[in-house]
Prior knowledge:
The chain is mainly alpha-helical. The protein folds into two domains: about 5-70, Arc Repressor Mutant, subunit A; about 75-220, GntR ligand-binding domain-like (Four Helix Bundle (Hemerythrin (Met), subunit A)). The chain is built from nine helices and three strands. The chain has helices at about 10-20, 35-40, 45-55, 75-95, 100-115, 125-140, 145-160, 170-190, 195-220, and strands at about 30, 60-65, 65-70. Strands 1-3-2 form a three-stranded antiparallel β-sheet. Helix 1 (about 10-20) crosses helix 3, helix 2 packs across helix 3 (about 45-55) and helix 4 (about 75-95) packs antiparallel against helix 9 (about 195-220). The two termini are about 35 Å apart. The relative contact order is 0.14.
Amino acid sequence: MTTATxxxxxxxxxxxxxxxxxxxxxxxYRLVLGSLAKDLNMSVVPxxxxxxxxxxxxxxxxxxxVGARVAMVDDSQYRFSMQALSIMEGAAVALAARALTExxxxxxxxxxxxxxxxLDHFDPHRFTTLNRQFHAALxxxxxxxxxxxxxxxxxxRLGHLRVSTFSFVPGRAHESVQxxxxxxxxxxxxxALTDIELAVRRHRATTLDAxxxxxxxxxSLGPPKLSPRKGESHV
Length: 235
Protein backbone atom coordinates (compact mmCIF):
# COMPACT_ATOMS: atom_id res chain seq x y z
CA MET A 1 0.00 0.00 0.00
CA THR A 2 1.45 3.41 -1.01
CA THR A 3 1.24 6.61 1.04
CA ALA A 4 -1.25 8.00 -1.46
CA THR A 5 -3.71 5.16 -0.79
CA UNK A 6 -3.53 5.40 3.01
CA UNK A 7 -6.42 6.90 4.93
CA UNK A 8 -5.76 10.01 7.01
CA UNK A 9 -5.76 8.00 10.25
CA UNK A 10 -3.30 5.52 8.74
CA UNK A 11 -1.01 8.34 7.62
CA UNK A 12 -1.19 9.90 11.08
CA UNK A 13 -0.47 6.53 12.68
CA UNK A 14 2.59 5.93 10.49
CA UNK A 15 3.90 9.48 11.00
CA UNK A 16 3.59 9.42 14.80
CA UNK A 17 4.84 5.84 15.12
CA UNK A 18 7.95 6.59 13.05
CA UNK A 19 8.82 9.46 15.35
CA UNK A 20 8.38 7.30 18.43
CA UNK A 21 10.50 4.47 17.02
CA UNK A 22 13.21 6.90 15.90
CA UNK A 23 13.21 8.54 19.37
CA UNK A 24 12.20 11.95 18.00
CA UNK A 25 9.25 11.57 20.35
CA UNK A 26 11.06 10.05 23.33
CA UNK A 27 9.63 8.38 26.43
CA UNK A 28 7.40 10.80 28.32
CA TYR A 29 6.88 13.13 25.35
CA ARG A 30 3.47 14.81 25.55
CA LEU A 31 1.39 14.38 22.39
CA VAL A 32 -0.98 17.32 21.83
CA LEU A 33 -3.64 16.36 19.30
CA GLY A 34 -4.14 19.88 17.97
CA SER A 35 -0.43 20.40 17.35
CA LEU A 36 -0.08 17.00 15.68
CA ALA A 37 -3.11 17.67 13.47
CA LYS A 38 -1.58 21.00 12.42
CA ASP A 39 1.76 19.35 11.58
CA LEU A 40 -0.07 16.71 9.55
CA ASN A 41 -2.40 19.23 7.90
CA MET A 42 -5.53 17.31 8.91
CA SER A 43 -8.30 17.46 11.48
CA VAL A 44 -8.00 16.12 15.02
CA VAL A 45 -10.33 13.16 14.32
CA PRO A 46 -7.90 10.92 12.34
CA UNK A 47 -5.08 11.88 14.72
CA UNK A 48 -7.20 10.72 17.67
CA UNK A 49 -7.85 7.41 15.88
CA UNK A 50 -4.10 6.98 15.32
CA UNK A 51 -3.38 7.72 18.98
CA UNK A 52 -5.89 5.09 20.06
CA UNK A 53 -4.23 2.50 17.84
CA UNK A 54 -0.78 3.35 19.22
CA UNK A 55 -2.16 3.14 22.75
CA UNK A 56 -3.49 -0.36 22.00
CA UNK A 57 0.02 -1.31 20.85
CA UNK A 58 1.53 -0.03 24.09
CA UNK A 59 3.50 2.83 22.52
CA UNK A 60 1.35 5.57 24.04
CA UNK A 61 -0.08 5.96 27.53
CA UNK A 62 -2.94 8.21 28.66
CA UNK A 63 -2.56 10.04 31.95
CA UNK A 64 -5.56 11.53 33.71
CA UNK A 65 -5.72 15.34 33.43
CA VAL A 66 -2.59 15.26 31.25
CA GLY A 67 -3.44 13.44 28.04
CA ALA A 68 -1.38 11.25 25.76
CA ARG A 69 2.32 10.66 26.35
CA VAL A 70 4.83 8.33 24.75
CA ALA A 71 5.00 5.31 27.06
CA MET A 72 7.95 5.14 29.43
CA VAL A 73 10.50 2.37 28.94
CA ASP A 74 9.61 -0.71 30.96
CA ASP A 75 12.06 -3.61 31.14
CA SER A 76 9.24 -6.09 31.68
CA GLN A 77 7.61 -4.90 28.44
CA TYR A 78 10.94 -5.27 26.64
CA ARG A 79 11.24 -8.81 27.93
CA PHE A 80 7.68 -9.65 26.88
CA SER A 81 8.26 -8.20 23.39
CA MET A 82 11.46 -10.18 22.94
CA GLN A 83 9.74 -13.38 24.04
CA ALA A 84 6.79 -12.76 21.73
CA LEU A 85 9.10 -11.89 18.83
CA SER A 86 11.16 -15.05 19.30
CA ILE A 87 8.03 -17.16 18.82
CA MET A 88 6.40 -15.17 16.03
CA GLU A 89 9.53 -14.51 14.02
CA GLY A 90 10.67 -18.12 14.34
CA ALA A 91 7.36 -19.21 12.83
CA ALA A 92 7.48 -16.48 10.15
CA VAL A 93 10.98 -17.45 8.98
CA ALA A 94 9.99 -21.11 8.87
CA LEU A 95 6.96 -20.22 6.75
CA ALA A 96 9.15 -18.16 4.42
CA ALA A 97 12.12 -20.56 4.22
CA ARG A 98 11.03 -22.55 1.18
CA ALA A 99 10.18 -19.36 -0.73
CA LEU A 100 13.63 -17.82 -0.29
CA THR A 101 15.68 -17.86 -3.48
CA GLU A 102 19.43 -18.02 -3.93
CA UNK A 103 19.34 -14.28 -4.56
CA UNK A 104 17.45 -13.70 -1.29
CA UNK A 105 20.01 -15.72 0.64
CA UNK A 106 22.85 -13.87 -1.07
CA UNK A 107 21.32 -10.50 -0.15
CA UNK A 108 20.82 -11.57 3.48
CA UNK A 109 24.41 -12.81 3.66
CA UNK A 110 25.63 -9.48 2.26
CA UNK A 111 23.78 -7.65 5.04
CA UNK A 112 25.33 -9.97 7.62
CA UNK A 113 28.75 -9.25 6.11
CA UNK A 114 28.15 -5.53 6.60
CA UNK A 115 27.31 -6.29 10.23
CA UNK A 116 30.59 -8.17 10.61
CA UNK A 117 32.47 -5.19 9.18
CA UNK A 118 31.07 -2.91 11.91
CA LEU A 119 32.46 -5.06 14.73
CA ASP A 120 36.00 -3.62 14.78
CA HIS A 121 34.71 -0.08 15.29
CA PHE A 122 31.39 -1.00 16.82
CA ASP A 123 28.42 1.29 16.20
CA PRO A 124 25.46 -0.32 18.01
CA HIS A 125 22.86 1.78 16.20
CA ARG A 126 24.25 0.95 12.75
CA PHE A 127 24.51 -2.70 13.76
CA THR A 128 20.90 -2.70 14.95
CA THR A 129 19.67 -1.15 11.70
CA LEU A 130 21.45 -3.83 9.68
CA ASN A 131 20.19 -6.50 12.07
CA ARG A 132 16.63 -5.40 11.42
CA GLN A 133 17.26 -5.56 7.66
CA PHE A 134 18.74 -9.04 7.92
CA HIS A 135 15.78 -10.47 9.81
CA ALA A 136 13.26 -8.77 7.52
CA ALA A 137 15.03 -10.30 4.51
CA LEU A 138 14.20 -13.75 5.89
CA UNK A 139 10.64 -13.45 7.18
CA UNK A 140 9.26 -10.98 4.61
CA UNK A 141 8.81 -13.77 2.05
CA UNK A 142 6.25 -15.48 4.28
CA UNK A 143 2.92 -15.86 2.49
CA UNK A 144 1.15 -15.27 5.80
CA UNK A 145 0.73 -11.49 5.72
CA UNK A 146 -0.86 -11.47 9.16
CA UNK A 147 2.26 -13.07 10.63
CA UNK A 148 4.46 -10.53 8.84
CA UNK A 149 2.39 -7.66 10.22
CA UNK A 150 2.65 -9.02 13.76
CA UNK A 151 6.42 -9.40 13.50
CA UNK A 152 6.79 -5.91 12.03
CA UNK A 153 4.70 -4.44 14.85
CA UNK A 154 6.79 -6.17 17.51
CA UNK A 155 10.02 -4.97 15.91
CA UNK A 156 8.59 -1.44 16.02
CA ARG A 157 7.73 -1.80 19.69
CA LEU A 158 11.26 -2.99 20.42
CA GLY A 159 12.61 0.07 18.63
CA HIS A 160 10.72 2.23 21.12
CA LEU A 161 11.71 0.22 24.18
CA ARG A 162 15.39 -0.01 23.31
CA VAL A 163 17.12 2.02 20.58
CA SER A 164 19.75 -0.73 20.49
CA THR A 165 19.98 -3.80 22.69
CA PHE A 166 23.57 -4.10 21.50
CA SER A 167 24.42 -0.84 23.29
CA PHE A 168 23.94 -2.80 26.51
CA VAL A 169 25.52 -6.09 25.40
CA PRO A 170 28.03 -5.27 22.62
CA GLY A 171 29.74 -8.65 23.03
CA ARG A 172 26.55 -10.33 21.91
CA ALA A 173 27.03 -8.86 18.41
CA HIS A 174 29.89 -11.27 17.58
CA GLU A 175 27.75 -14.27 18.49
CA SER A 176 24.74 -12.86 16.65
CA VAL A 177 26.40 -12.68 13.23
CA GLN A 178 27.64 -16.27 13.61
CA UNK A 179 24.11 -17.42 14.40
CA UNK A 180 22.83 -15.53 11.36
CA UNK A 181 25.18 -17.52 9.14
CA UNK A 182 24.07 -20.77 10.79
CA UNK A 183 20.41 -19.94 10.06
CA UNK A 184 21.25 -19.15 6.43
CA UNK A 185 23.07 -22.45 6.03
CA UNK A 186 20.10 -24.34 7.46
CA UNK A 187 17.76 -22.65 4.97
CA UNK A 188 20.16 -23.37 2.08
CA UNK A 189 20.42 -27.01 3.10
CA UNK A 190 16.64 -27.46 3.21
CA UNK A 191 16.64 -28.25 6.93
CA ALA A 192 13.37 -29.24 8.59
CA LEU A 193 11.16 -26.21 9.09
CA THR A 194 10.80 -27.00 12.78
CA ASP A 195 14.58 -26.92 13.14
CA ILE A 196 14.77 -23.56 11.37
CA GLU A 197 12.03 -22.19 13.60
CA LEU A 198 13.81 -23.35 16.75
CA ALA A 199 17.12 -21.88 15.56
CA VAL A 200 15.52 -18.46 15.08
CA ARG A 201 13.82 -18.71 18.47
CA ARG A 202 17.10 -19.64 20.19
CA HIS A 203 18.83 -16.75 18.43
CA ARG A 204 16.33 -14.25 19.83
CA ALA A 205 16.19 -15.88 23.28
CA THR A 206 19.97 -15.81 23.63
CA THR A 207 20.01 -12.05 23.00
CA LEU A 208 17.34 -11.57 25.66
CA ASP A 209 19.28 -13.74 28.12
CA ALA A 210 22.44 -11.70 27.52
CA UNK A 211 20.55 -8.46 28.09
CA UNK A 212 18.84 -9.67 31.27
CA UNK A 213 22.14 -10.97 32.65
CA UNK A 214 23.73 -7.56 32.04
CA UNK A 215 20.82 -5.79 33.69
CA UNK A 216 21.14 -7.95 36.80
CA UNK A 217 24.88 -7.33 36.88
CA UNK A 218 24.27 -3.58 36.72
CA UNK A 219 21.69 -3.80 39.51
CA SER A 220 24.28 -5.41 41.79
CA LEU A 221 26.46 -2.30 41.45
CA GLY A 222 23.91 -0.11 43.14
CA PRO A 223 21.00 2.14 42.19
CA PRO A 224 21.07 3.57 38.68
CA LYS A 225 21.95 7.19 38.05
CA LEU A 226 18.98 9.21 36.92
CA SER A 227 19.26 11.31 33.78
CA PRO A 228 16.93 14.16 32.82
CA ARG A 229 13.93 13.19 30.79
CA LYS A 230 14.11 14.82 27.39
CA GLY A 231 11.73 15.55 24.59
CA GLU A 232 8.67 16.70 26.56
CA SER A 233 6.54 19.21 24.69
CA HIS A 234 4.03 21.57 26.32
CA VAL A 235 2.82 23.30 23.18
